[in-house]
User: Fold this.
Amino acid sequence: PNRSSTSVQLLLARRQCQALVTPEQRLRLDKNQFQDVPSVHRYLHCFWSRMHLWQDATGFQAMAIVQRFGGIEIVNVEQALPSINGCNQKTKWSQRRHGPIGWCYLAFTCVLRTPVGDWYRRHMSDVINGNA
Assistant:
């Protein structure tokens, strides 16, 4: 199938970061199960940083995420921007205690609990299965 450039970038970032997790953890990641363990924290930080959608100083780049994942035609901006930016703010306290890697994990799992997370899980499943 013809893959979008975003899908190719997602798969490449996954491949580049997969050495940080065990094969069992990788299978869980493929099922959108994100364990609260240091190796998964490092994997997520690696993945989002390689996608240029996470900055250690400011968190997730909400508008860049919208643009990378199909733009305003596909992503509900009114829902996505407040969800992503709100999770950045809600979890930023963790940066002092856990560093940017821990903050990235907490912000990401926060986003997963929003409607944006539902969309992300569907999209990543499509990418992994070759449908995007």
Q: What stands out?
A: DSSP finds seven helices and two strands in the chain.
